[in-house]
Amino acid sequence: MARTSGSIGSKTAGAIRTQSLALFADHGYAAVSMRMIADAVGVGVSALYNHYPTKQALLVHLLTDHMQRLILAWENQPTAPDHILALEQFARFHIRYHITKPDEVFLSYMELRALEPDNFAALNHLRNRYEAFLTAILRDFDLQDRKITAMAILGMLTGATTWYKPGGRLSAQEIEDIYARLVLNCVGITTKEPAHV
Amino acid sequence: MARTSGSIGSKTAGAIRTQSLALFADHGYAAVSMRMIADAVGVGVSALYNHYPTKQALLVHLLTDHMQRLILAWENQPTAPDHILALEQFARFHIRYHITKPDEVFLSYMELRALEPDNFAALNHLRNRYEAFLTAILRDFDLQDRKITAMAILGMLTGATTWYKPGGRLSAQEIEDIYARLVLNCVGITTKEPAHV
DNA sequence: TAATTAAATGAACGTTCGTTCTTTTAATAG
DNA sequence: CTATTAAAAGAACGAACGTTCATTTAATTA
Fold it and tell me: Using CA atoms, how far apart are residues B95 and B191, in angstroms rounded to an integer?
């Protein structure tokens, strides 16, 4: 009925993010109640509102946080010497980053529809920024259709998060290798052994 | 307050399927209420229960119906003369079928998690049956990893439904052509102009 | 035409939802 | 040490949820 011993706001806020992310990814935003989140955190429902004003604000924070981190991570990658290596680098980066954060990815691709208009626009803008990285790389290739090729590649890569589970038959490195080859094949580069970037 | 003039059960049942499919695809199963569906159909809430016993039963019917049609449609395709043409045929079939039914596809890939365990198992079984068609075709190719290649191809193809809108820049036929080429490239077949199946 | 069945109504059920409020107490600042 | 703030509790709010039920009337069958 009162503040609990040892409680620190930032700790609880972090737990709220972690638990709500997992729950949203598992059941979908609409199917998760604030009470479910509170139970997972180990706290009363009303305590959640000390950290996030609404359920929607919590979702918005999770999504923008993920997209900003993703964009930043790519921008910190070294510049590749040519367009073929750049594409391979992107494929490897995307797979590597995404299979380690399956919940964030799933949420980002699935729950944009749960956002109110303004929030949706902001998130969509971030997603377009990231996708532009790939289309820029593809500009140096001779393709039937650049936009569709970009969408096809992103679909292929992102789809990996729907079935990848750590500790499965293949290591993350092996999966990265296989996908890198598949992506290069897609755009007509059939080098037998792509370089590991 | 009573049966309305001109009301026929099968008509209403069809409208329930059509409207609930669109609503579920747009907002997600959990975010759609029976009242929303009833409003879209133009009927009171309780009338829905003359046709489906629960909300879950309605979802199950939509999903199983879609998967059964999909499997049947593929089984009715003619047998291709060789494995390369078979893969191209599958890619074209999958794209063609899926971009004409974006709502069903989206629902089938997204709302399996909304199913109760028994229903989930049944649907998963149907999905595995369909995916087995592709892995069987890939058995005749020399691949780094057949299972992953199958998942990558399905991800790439199915992803098309997330952005394709009728009346866009490209026709369905052009999209089919582009994806067919991308899929063949993926498995190392770089024929400049794939046959149209 | 009379009896039966099918289709829809609107009110109501108990539950759960997101959120707010008051109160209590731990952590922190002066 | 005292005052203040931060973090939690638990009860309560009206609204919306899936579902049920008794009732009414159209369509169908005998």
Answer: 20
